[in-house]
Amino acid sequence: MLACLDVDYRPDVTVAACVVFRDWTDATEATHHVDRGPPAAEYEPGQFYRRELPHLLRVLALVPEKLEAIVVDGYVWLGEDKPGLGAHLYEALGRAVPVIGVAKTAFHSSGIAVPVLRGQSQRPLFVTAVGMSTATAAEHLQRMHGDARRPTLLGRVDRLCREG
Fold first, then answer.
1. What pLDDT sits at residue 109?
2. Which one is predicted more confidently, 112 or 55?
3. What DSSP letter does each residue of the chain carry, written as one string?
4. How high is the pLDDT of residue 110?
5. Residue 117 and residue 124 in contact, taking contact as beta carbons nearer than 8 Å
6. Gap between the Cα atoms of 110 and 126, Å rounded
7. Cβ atoms of 32 and 18 closer than 8 Å
8. How far is CA 125 from the centre of its chain?
9. What pLDDT is attached to residue 108?
10. Residue 131 φ/ψ region, left for φ over 0, alpha for ψ in the -120 to 50 degree band, beta for the rest
């Protein structure tokens, strides 16, 4: 099984969602989980993962299936040997599940991200990974369902967070 994760912050609650699916080309989820947790910690420059990671781990604890890979909204690596959210998640999971980071904007020092164009979009998504090669991660993202810039199931997990 595969999973897409996202988090939405509100003043009184933080909503984390997980969409579980079987194959990179799936148009629909097998299942999903939503966790409504406490408000997120304040943002600390360079420490974004501290704000989001606890909520990702809470929603992942609801997933009974063994995961082959996880896709997060954001970067795995912020630069050479500079871990981002995805790298911290990988470590928190005991390096047992590869993590693919998909970002919508270029990060100034992340020259290691692979730009991926999807559908008719001229704006790339930026892919980083840990536990698998970035090239393989980019291929998986390219194969994900949907003819828009953002894959269908990444849009689905985003909506679950906002609606949760």
1. 53
2. 55
3. -EEEEEEEE-SS-EEEEEEEESSTT-SS-SEEEEEEESPPPPP-TT-HHHHHHHHHHHHHTT--SPPSEEEEES-SEEETTEE-HHHHHHHHTTT-S-EEEEESS--TT-TTPEEE--TT-SSPEEEEEESS-HHHHHHHHHHSS-SSSS-HHHHHHHHHHHH-
4. 56
5. yes
6. 9
7. yes
8. 12
9. 62
10. left
Per-residue tokens: 63 = 């997933």
Distance (Å, whole) CA 30 – CA 38: 27
Residue 77 amino acid letter: W
Q: Are 92 and 101 in contact (CB under 8 A)?
A: no
Q: Tell me the residue type at 121.
A: S
